[in-house]
Amino acid sequence: MSIIRVDAHGPFHHRAALAMLAAHAIPGAEELDGTTYRRILTIDGEPALVTITLDPGGLTAVTDPSVDDPAPVAALIRRWFDLDTDTALVDRKLAADPVLAPLIARRPGLRLIGYPDEFEAVAAAVIGQQVSLAAARTFASRLVTAYGNRYAELGAFPVAAALARLGPAEIQQCAGLTRARARTLHEVSRLWAQGTLLHGVPAADARRLLLDIPGIGPWTADYLLVRALHDPDTFAPGDLVARRALGLDRKAAAARSPAWAPYRSYALLHLWTDAAYR
Fold first, then answer.
1. pTM here?
2. Which of 133, 213, 253, 259 has the most CB atoms less than 10 A away?
3. Domains of the chain by range and CATH?
């Protein structure tokens, strides 16, 4: 096994990160125990069990089997957990807002926890459209059981090519999705089977690309800019949780958000965390 230490730049609210991971964890694919999180990652083209222990200074990852070069794994984890961001700078900017100030005081060092794989992020967002987190986890777990590669008693989320080979009807029957959602998941699987589409693309272009996919609307596109692209300056005015927390309608929430630039994504995450990831 290999032990890889990755330190955070600035404060890291590791318990909020764990709460977010727990809220979205797919049964059979992800496990949490205290401050430890486990899942399968593909490293050098092969599956590996990665056990990550989070703490206020960053995290320690243990890979089984060992890796020849830990640098790419450390880089993936840094991006996944947003560890290079200076959260002290973000917190100072957002604390000027009277609604956000108490949230930041409760959870300094909140980071944009994303996904280790772009297709998994997009597929999870599609699966979770207009259903509860519990239902989304159940649907995703069925796909992992049926089509995910297994290693060390856990299953990996299916790769895009595996789902692309299925028809929408097969995806619907397996996961229990609606017909429309199954069609969208099949389409994103087909597109991502050809390669990563969002990484390195400017946020505005990525949003247009996502909105061109049938079944992906503005909320899902904005959500994916935050969770898949790690864009620091996206706000989703259509997000019901955020609007309720602000006590504003869509138009008023959109008008207020420019004051949080260039860290609107972090403002959105604070609102989400306070409402849903406690």
1. 0.93
2. 253
3. 2-84 (3.30.310.20), 118-227 (1.10.340.30)
